[in-house]
Design a protein that fits this description.
The structure holds two protein chains of two kinds. Chain A is α/β, with parallel strands linked by helices. Chain A is about 40% helix and about 20% strand. At the A-B interface, strand 3, helix 3, helix 5 and strand 9 of A face strand 1, helix 3, strand 2, helix 4 and helix 6 of B. Strand 9 of chain A pairs parallel with strand 2 of chain B, so a sheet runs across the interface.
Chain lengths: ~400, ~300
């Protein structure tokens, strides 16, 4: 039986972790993700979990210890934000190349500098090529649900890759919303016992992890990682289906909101999708055919499926909450435009950079984006394809 | 724990031959003899910071390690093994593991004194049940003999080259054993290859079987970096100890214990003259550099004697 509650995104993720009861959780505080290990430490202190909580001296060490624990055969994870993720950069690649199914609860925050504690996606977007599965949430419910599904995806024998469960700093991590929680037993049964095949603490067979591998093997190792990523798409769908049967909440690779017959559409990641839905409802009431494609799975990138979902759209705005400094826009823009090109799409596409460092996005801002798209569709010309939303020029 | 030389030496090797370390490398001598501290029947997970030891003993698809082994990166051997040890505790608690495991990690001085110091400090302060072994050869040998904070003063390295305006490394060595001892860990020891290795074997066993964090600092000469005649390694180590350059000591529960006091302290020249990296100190006109070096050795020895007298 589902339990209704009112929780912040951080608390919701912490509760999911309590229900999962992982083996090892090394952690280091950084705003706005600090509350996750903080809540969890109280679960440890009160005997609600039997996890080894290791309060390390840095994020580099939290990821290093998580890698050590996962290699040893333990279900492990950590949590971080922003500079904490940047500090563990080197380790992200090592976790992925070692095919370790560990989890990272990421609370998205702008990278320094200037130093800023508020939301944007520059942290996780920078890690998009590290070999981690990345899933994003619009709200607290999705953050919780994604966390519950995380290990089923990462530990799947066809995948065996680390997974980053992302939510927007403060906007969802600290805002309290109504939420439906699963029963502890339901989560426990859904996630199951971790049964690694090869691990350091296997008394039957010692194992060596982290070899020196030069030109004769490195490329095959990377190619194998890519194969795991390929399989992840189907696994994400399968796990979501099972989760829907349990919770009644359906997830896919992305969410389509009033997209079926839309003439113009927005593609985005994260909490501003909620704001965009409000703008869409308002414009739909006025007869405008507008829609949204909200990315849930960003790595691997479901390019074909996205291009298909947008195949009927005349004009599309791809919204990036991170700069790419390519003079072309952001990373999501590059990925979606490549997907449209590969599908020989005729849609006119523009790429907006928005919401950096927590810059607020209002319903009217998104109405403005749709008005621009309408004009683009009418003109048959995208004009400047690299734009900013809500910046003082 | 009584010491039996024959028994210790007849234990099976846990680092197999056929690895790619240089002939006469001090690093592998350190590893093989530390691992003799493990009781037969006990299992171990070995950690390793990036360095010569790692790239030469675990070149895919071959490993020289008989035990489970993990290399993660250069600066995080302490944190990585903390995670492994955490996993051990978790699996034990959950009844998923019956066997006894010990946790030993090796790092060179670059990975220990310098880039890995934070990670090491964290692991020591948390009193993780592990042994961190530094095989100290006094420079970044894997990348080609660059100075580290363990490099002795005046050593000629590729980043402190001797030249018309340079006498080699201008700074003194960092006293890492004292820094780790200040973490209040249950066991710290310094050793090297002396006589029949009893000092090293005994300290390794103590370090491995002392509950909580332990640190071993082992002077492990590098024939290429130090530029000495390779077969002379034992003589070099003996002179390091007899000149009081590399004293043998332990810090047990905060108590400093001197393990060996030379009957007659030899002049530092005896240690330095055998090493090409100090060749310039013996040029005419550079006598004052030898005096400075001797002064530093004396100062550190006095400091150690003071610590051990309390």
């Amino acid at each position: 039986m589902a339990k209704r509650d009112r929780l912040s995104g951080n608390e919701a993720v912490a509760i999911a972790l309590r229900q999962i009861n992982p083996d090892v959780f090394p952690a280091f505080p950084i705003t706005p993700s600090t509350e996750i290990p903080q809540y969890f430490a109280s679960f440890v202190a009160n005997g609600q979990v039997d996890t080894e909580f290791i309060p390390v001296e840095s994020e580099h060490s939290s990821m290093s210890a998580a890698i050590g624990a996962s290699s040893a055969g333990a279900r492990s994870l950590t949590a971080t934000s922003s500079c904490g993720l940047a500090y563990m950069w080197e380790e992200l690649y090592i976790a992925a190349s070692n095919r370790l199914p560990l989890a990272l609860a990421l609370v998205n925050r702008a990278l320094s500098g200037p130093i800023n504690i508020n939301c944007d996606h520059s942290d996780s977007m920078g890690a998009r090529d590290a070999g981690w599965i990345q899933m994003y949430a619009e709200n607290n419910q999705e953050a919780y649900d994604n966390m519950v599904q995380a290990y089923r995806i990462s530990e799947h024998k066809d995948v065996r890759l680390p997974i980053m469960i992302c939510q927007d700093g403060f906007i969802t991590s600290h805002a309290v919303e109504n939420i439906e929680l699963l029963e502890d037993e339901e989560v426990k049964n859904f996630v199951g016992e971790y049964a690694p095949e090869n691990y350091l603490l296997n008394p039957e067979c010692p194992m060596a992890v982290g070899p020196y591998s030069i030109t004769d093997y490195y490329m095959e190792a990377k190619r194998n990682q890519a194969e795991g990523m390929k399989h992840a798409v189907q696994v994400v769908k399968d796990v979501a289906k099972e989760f829907a049967a349990l919770s009644g909440r359906e997830y896919g690779l992305f969410e389509e909101y009033r997209l079926d017959d839309a003439e113009t559409a927005v593609v985005m990641i994260g909490s501003v999708a909620g704001t965009t839905k409000d703008a869409i409802d308002k414009l739909r009431d006025q007869g405008e055919k507008v829609g949204l494609l909200k990315i849930r799975l960003y790595r691997p990138f479901p390019a074909e499926e996205i291009a298909k979902a947008l195949s009927h759209v005349k004009a599309v705005a791809i919204m990036d909450r991170a700069e790419g400094y390519s003079n072309q826009g952001g990373p999501l823009g590059a990925d979606v435009m490549a997907a449209l090109y590969r599908a020989r799409s005729q849609a006119l596409a523009v790429n907006y950079v928005y919401g950096l460092g927590g810059r607020d996005v209002r319903v009217e801002d998104m109405e403005g984006v749709f008005a621009t798209l309408k004009q683009i569709a009418a003109d048959g010309d995208a004009g400047e394809m690299y734009r900013y939303l809500g910046v003082r020029e | 724990m009584s010491y039996n030389f024959k028994e210790t030496m007849s234990k099976p090797e846990r680092l197999a031959p056929g690895h790619r370390m240089c002939a006469g490398c001090g690093g592998t001598i350190a590893v093989r003899n530390v691992l003799r501290g493990l009781h037969e029947g006990d299992k171990a997970v070995i950690g390793n910071a990036t360095g010569c030891l790692e790239v030469s003993t675990f070149t895919y698809p071959y490993t020289a390690w008989e035990d489970s082994y993990i290399h993660n990166a250069f600066e995080n051997a302490g944190a990585t093994l903390s995670g492994v040890e955490g996993a051990y505790r978790a699996l034990k608690k959950k009844g998923k593991l019956d066997e006894t495991y010990k946790f030993i990690t090796f790092g060179g001085d670059g990975g220990t004194y310098d880039i890995g110091l934070q990670s090491l400090s964290g692991a020591m302060e948390r009193n993780q049940d592990m042994v961190y072994v530094c095989y100290d050869n006094g420079a970044y040998m894997n990348t080609g003999i660059q100075r580290s904070s363990a490099t002795p003063m005046y050593a000629d390295t590729t980043t402190t080259p001797v030249g018309s305006e340079s006498n080699g490394k201008p700074q003194n060595r960092k006293d890492l054993a004292a820094i780790i001892a200040a973490h209040d860990v249950p066991y710290v020891a310094q050793t090297t290859f002396i006589k029949n290795f009893k000092d090293l074997h005994v300290k390794a066993e103590k370090a491995i079987y002392t509950p909580g964090a332990a640190f071993l600092n082992i002077m492990a000469p590098c024939p290429r970096g130090w530029r000495y005649n390779t077969p002379d390694i034992m003589e070099i180590c003996r002179l390091g100890v007899e000149t009081c350059y590399w004293p043998l000591f332990e810090v047990v529960e905060g108590k400093w214990i001197l393990n060996y006091e030379p009957k007659k302290k030899l002049p530092i020249e005896d240690f330095l003259i055998k090493q090409g990296r100090f060749k310039h100190l013996f040029k005419k006109g550079n006598e004052y550099l030898l005096e400075e070096f001797q002064k530093e050795v004396d100062r550190r020895w006095d400091e150690l004697m003071f610590r051990c007298s309390r």
